[in-house]
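lol forgot to send this yesterday, sorry. struct tokens for the thing we talked abt
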């Protein structure tokens, strides 16, 4: 994707992400529901209905309202909540107001930040003396990682089964920092195959070792790991993690947009 002339500016990175990544997880999870990148799409699991739409919806306000209503009718019939993912640059801009008017509640927004892998990997960072970083092999047990996150990251919503599958298949790579036998920090990356992007997630450091540059070191190391497969990196940062966003920006990531999930639950 090096032929993208404006890929390194903010709008160019965001447009590239919209085109390559926005629908990626939906297509994998609901291949039979995938239509095209110009319309709203809904898919369902046993526990929820999920909706994602394009950055520039070509339909009318009435079309959008009708789709919202049809999702709610289906959800009410099946007794399932609806989770609708939006981004702050989406058009029409009134969509989020329509969702609220229909009874959806907004969850806290996350910042989507994007970086150029080569630029991020060029940073030089060091761990505190005595600490060591390594990438887990694909056959290692991730239960200690899950337990560490449960103890140190109240905001973690890790889907353990999906994550374990990605690790075994080599699509996710876990990087940890240890002090002897003690786990100090975790992080991972997930390739978005065929898109030129890799997702960085799971940044968590035990409390007494925070603000020692460990997460910046792990960001750089993951960028190096991603270089063979991806030209770009991205992360979604919760509002409860301002230091994580600062770390990413300090290393060359740029703010692209805010991501907000809207939730509607049928009345019992």
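and heres what i got for the seq, position by position
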């Amino acid at each position: 994707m090096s032929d993208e002339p404006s890929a390194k500016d903010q709008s160019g990175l965001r447009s590239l992400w919209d085109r390559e990544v926005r629908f990626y997880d939906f297509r994998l999870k609901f291949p039979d529901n995938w239509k095209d990148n110009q319309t709203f799409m809904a898919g369902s699991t046993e526990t929820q209905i999920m909706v994602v739409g394009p950055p520039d919806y070509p339909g009318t306000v009435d079309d959008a309202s009708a789709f919202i209503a049809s999702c709610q009718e289906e959800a009410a019939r099946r007794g399932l909540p609806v989770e609708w993912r939006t981004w702050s640059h989406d058009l029409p801009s009134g969509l989020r107001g329509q969702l609220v008017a229909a009874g959806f509640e907004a969850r806290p927004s996350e910042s989507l930040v994007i970086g150029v892998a080569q630029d991020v990997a060029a940073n030089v960072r060091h761990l505190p003396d005595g600490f060591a970083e390594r990438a887990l092999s694909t056959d290692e047990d991730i239960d200690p990682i899950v337990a560490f996150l449960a103890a140190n990251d109240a905001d973690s919503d890790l889907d353990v089964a999906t994550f374990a599958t990605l690790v075994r298949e080599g699509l996710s790579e876990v990087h940890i920092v240890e002090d002897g036998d003690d786990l100090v920090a975790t992080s991972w990356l997930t390739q978005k195959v065929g898109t030129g992007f890799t997702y960085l997630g799971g940044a968590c450091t035990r409390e007494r070792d925070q603000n020692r540059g460990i997460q910046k070191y792990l960001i750089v190391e993951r960028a190096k790991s991603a270089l063979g497969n991806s030209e770009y990196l991205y992360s979604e940062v919760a509002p409860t993690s301002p230091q994580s966003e600062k770390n990413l920006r300090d290393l060359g990531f740029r703010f692209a947009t805010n991501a907000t999930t809207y939730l509607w639950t049928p009345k019992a």
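The chain is about 35% helix and 25% strand. anyway ping me if u want another try
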